């Protein structure tokens, strides 16, 4: 049975995603001392079976987290080896030559923790709730293996929200490319969205500008 969401509620999904990205930028500043701008370049919806194709060919670093509170489901972040090397070099100040060393991997894991927790916390804060999650393990694998590990318990009627995002470092000519998948439990997700109002989301974002013409997503 397909997920049925009032089309008027799609704006709310976009707002939640925006708030998650905004919180990532804040987390990077406070936890890693990195001044960055996090942008969502695109948002799309695919079926779980299409996730490997959306990830791409080759091997990718990835982290997936099972959400134990609404909207439940899985949060999955992937980044290619070039992006992983960029992040590791920036975090450690050491060039990557022939592969990541232990220091590089530790730094990449730290960045992964900041990005994932920042995004989930941003959504939870907007919903005025908490979403508990475990610390993600960062691994390298091909797209089929990544999808199998992350989606083994996902319902066939679930829907994957796919985000292409960039992390722009303000003081450097550096940009990290990330792909994020949010695959919520269908029933919990619809119930959550149906209870929200787009004006309430705007109130949280900017209480003095409820009608500022913001039409993102």
Concise account of the structure shown:
The protein is 42% helix and 23% strand. It is of the alpha+beta class and 217 residues long.
What does this structure look like?
Helix 1 crosses helix 4 (102-126), helix 1 (10-32) packs parallel to helix 7 (198-205) and helix 3 packs across helix 4 (102-126). The radius of gyration is 17 Å and the shape is globular. It has 7 helices and 6 strands, in the order H-E-H-E-E-H-H-E-H-E-E-H-H. It has helices at 10-32, 51-55, 81-92, 102-126, 143-151, 186-194, 198-205, and strands spanning 36-46, 59-66, 74-80, 139-142, 160-169, 175-183. A 6-stranded antiparallel sheet has the order 1-5-6-3-2-4. The chain is 42% helix and 23% strand. The longest helix has 25 residues, at 102-126. A hairpin with a 7-residue loop joins strand 2 (59-66) and strand 3. Mean pLDDT is 82; it is low at 206-217. The protein is α+β, with helices and mostly antiparallel strands. 32% of the residues are buried.
């Amino acid at each position: 049975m397909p997920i049925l969401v009032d089309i008027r509620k799609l704006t709310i999904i976009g707002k939640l995603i925006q708030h998650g990205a905004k919180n990532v930028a804040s987390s990077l500043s406070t936890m890693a001392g990195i001044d960055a701008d996090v942008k969502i370049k695109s948002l799309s919806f695919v079926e779980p079976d299409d996730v490997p194709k959306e990830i791409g060919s080759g091997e990718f670093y990835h982290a997936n987290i099972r959400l134990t509170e609404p909207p439940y489901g899985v949060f999955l972040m992937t980044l290619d080896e070039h992006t992983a090397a960029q992040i590791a070099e920036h975090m450690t100040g050491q060039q990557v030559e022939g592969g990541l060393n232990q220091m590089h991997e530790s730094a990449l894991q730290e960045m992964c923790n900041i990005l994932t927790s920042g995004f989930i916390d941003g959504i939870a804060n907007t919903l005025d709730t908490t979403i508990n999650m475990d610390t993600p393990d960062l691994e390298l694998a091909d797209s089929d293996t990544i999808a199998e590990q992350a989606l083994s318990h996902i319902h066939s009627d679930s829907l994957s929200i796919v985000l292409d995002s960039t992390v722009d470092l303000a003081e450097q000519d550096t940009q990290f490319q990330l792909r994020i998948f949010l695959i919520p439990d269908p029933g919990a997700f619809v119930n959550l969205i149906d209870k929200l109002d787009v004006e309430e989301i705007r109130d949280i974002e900017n209480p003095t500008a409820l009608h500022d013409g913001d039409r993102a997503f």
